[in-house]
Specification:
Helix content is about 50%, strand content about 10%. By secondary structure, the chain is of the alpha/beta class. A seven-stranded parallel beta sheet has the order 3-4-2-5-6-1-7, sandwiched between helices. The protein starts with 7 loop residues before the first helix and ends with a helix. About 0% of the residues have low confidence.
Amino acid sequence: MTPQATDPALNLLQRVYGYQQFRGHQADVIRHVTAGGDALVLMPTGGGKSVCYQIPSLLRPGCGVVVSPLIALMQDQVNALQQLGVRSAFLNSTLNGEAQYAVESAFRRGELDLLYIAPERLLTPRTLDMLQQGEVALFAIDEAHCVSQWGHDFRAEYWKLSVLHERFPAVPRIALTATADARTREEILLRLGLEQAAQFVSGFDRPNIRYRIQPKQNIRQQLLSFLSPRRGEAGIVYCLSRKKTDETAAWLREQGYDAWPYHAGMTPQARQQNQDRFLRQDGVVIVATIAFGMGIDKPDVRFVAHTDLPKTLEAYYQETGRAGRDGLPSEAWMIYGLQDVVMMQQWIEQSEADDLHKQVERHKLDAMLGFCELTSCRRQALLAYFGDEMLKPCGNCDNCLEPVQTWDATEAARKALSCVYRAGQRFGVVHLLDILLGHHTEKIRSYGHDRLSTYGIGKDLDATQWRSVFRQLLVRGLLAVDWDAHGALRLTEASRPVLRGEQPVLLRKDQVVAETGKSRRGGSVPDGVEGRIFEELRALRRKLAEEQGVAPYMIFPDGVLTQMAQSRPQSTDALAKISGVGEYKLLHYGAAFLEVLRQFGPPPAAPAEAATFRQSLQLLLQGMSIAQIAQRRNLALSTVWGHVVQAVEASMLDYREITEITEAQIEAITDAWLSLPEEEQTRLKPLYELLDGKIDYHVLRCVVTGLRREALEGENND
């Protein structure tokens, strides 16, 4: 076990969470709030925000009260804490009267460390009175950006949370968010009465996420190409409409994916069922509208795919941020096209918002569109939008990995703009394409547009290329959509210099995208022994999670299983050194995971370990027992057994000469091993079960290693 830290907060981090060190601003935030100070914490998704209020809640007298708008996820957040041995509960509308009374009573008696409450429930007189009857350690206001009237997640009830400071002036408050530009941060401080709070801003970068954006060509084929190398990984596919969500999920199931829809038009029961599938099963793909996702705690989401354009960069950042919370490589992939641009502009102009809100929404959409059409590093632009700076290109977005080609589109732009003008600025893209390409449609004949000077002048480009031209002209503000004319395109003042030949136009060259199928798999380990170990560990995790009624990642996330598969700890002390294995989980699950790991034994000795291996072998050849060697060299028995197996594998030692292994054991193991199917002979668990668990794993591994070595030598002699 790791020696306990003298710092109480660090000691809790190591004992409860199993992590050795704090990250970023975590230690400073915890120190400040534990001492009674207010704080605003901006930390990227996966950056460890929850620790910033959970540890002070454990250190301060009383119960930490967490205000969260995520009713559907409170149960999972509480389950995750209970898996750490933390006394926690929630209060929301899903509880019946009896359950609610039990939670309230536990709070009053001081039997809770953390209590999650929806803002609507918190603001009721009953709840406020209850809080005054117990001891509150702190108030944590999660997803604090919901207070912003300019944001995409605005919640009116958040404005009323200033009552906390009025009713409980001595209780520290901590507001947390992953999505807030400078303007939103100011609004959070003002609305919540946190003007004097310390601000901890950790930046917005999510370096493990790879950003890719492609032109929309064939939605289903593009999505399938993206998903194919990611089969078996958990992910989210965002669609704009409920109908498209249902259809896409059904189609993906036909293609063999475990895919399920989620949107506001479904019954609450159906939504909850599909959300539970996503959270509690491996490799599920959720197809959703933006109704899904805020506060999703699932750490092993390997990809987020957008099949339609998000409304704002804030929405894009938050939605893509649901990938890779465990820090492992993940993908943010999006396709968008001309129709997305037109539709988003239509929503803004036809909304009932006042002129000021429409103006803000137009600016946000312009920023989103500009991000899509970038030819430079996407991460630099995304961070700059939030006031963060990255000095060098990231090297992990599509524009960095495959530099964008541009082309001189001056002549094409003049043709497109001229066509809009000649047609009277009364038509949409479909009809304009027909004019440019010289199509013989009834509409063209009825309007006499086959007599226009622009009729047929665009045959040097195909329809896909022309759509790209119109899309980029719209994004650059050379064209606009006239909603008084049912979505017709019209010229803007900025188009005049282009039409007169006074201004050149360089556009992105959209590639006909064929997904390469390359994927940085982060949720799985490589093939081979580590891959087999990982799958065995994952199967055990799934079994334990089903028994506990929790999501598998609450037992251990993929990152922890990967560490186990790579380092193969053989003792409790060694397992405790794995990052993410705290005392409670070690006590409750350590033995089960060690049983799997011991089937495979320790990893092959590294060069630095060769000397200690030779020392053990020398003492063994001198007649010392394995127990004597372990005692003399102050090593774990499992370590010395590992040296023995290594020697047998290298033909430096005959397993029949090891005193700890009897002839009867060798005979029983050999008969049982030969009776197993060939594909099962590489695993120890079937053999262990066949022998009724009567022979130790160390003995099994040693004999089987010798048997396999003999079989291999026999093949070579043949």
